[in-house]
Amino acid sequence: MIYKTYFEDRSKLDSLKETGMGYQIVSAKERYSAERRFYIIYNSELIISLDSDFDIFKYRAFKIKGLQITLNQAEPFRIDTSSISVFSKKESQDLLNLYSRESRSTYLSKSINKGRQTGGRGAIDSPMEEASGNELFTRLSAFENDRRIDFENRCLKNGSFTTTYSDYKVCVNFNDDPVDRYALPNEEEIKHAFMILPKKSDKLQRGIVQPAFGKNGGGIEAYFDQGTSQNTYLARKEYGYLY
Fold first, then answer.
1. Which of 1, 44, 81, 239 is most enclosed, with most CB atoms within 10 A?
2. Residues 6 and 77 occupy one common structural domain
3. What highest taxon heads this organism's lineage (predicted)?
4. Cβ distance 123 to 205 under 8 Å?
């Protein structure tokens, strides 16, 4: 099923870590229910049940109706926010293999290069490093109001993913597909690029996007467990914009 979150529940989701750039794979209970189920939540707003009908509803949401119409028409879903548990991509792989045909499809990495990396490990499995203070990072999103950006304090929220500006630039120059390059669980067009310049006091983990959701991955990802300092968010640009 497809749902949307209640506005008052979104701040709780915003405070929890992401599974990947723009989404969370969670187990949670509906309020006043004892039954725990699995969901993918996009931008703390759109919920799709992770069950045997996941591929059908994902296709309906992103391919047939589109993101905005889907959100407008979706039934609100009251989450018991105290019950939410967020999975890492590695932790959720068995769930994805069980419920999504895409996750069992053949990867095409041997025939697609476009400046992508192979092997390695994801960001959360990589060591912590300090930001240089002059390296630019980019967060890609189909949502203009990406909720991982704290627009008031102009920073990235805790537990959020980005890519590097360098890898974003390679993606644009090769006319690569960012949904496939960054293994995102949707087919919605990436329209926005949020530019972030962390300070030297900020810390991150850097890795290679691993294949998932039937996508090849191979882009660079960065994970900011504690977000970034105030005034590190620079601007929102249309996807494809290069400095």
1. 44
2. yes
3. Bacteria
4. yes
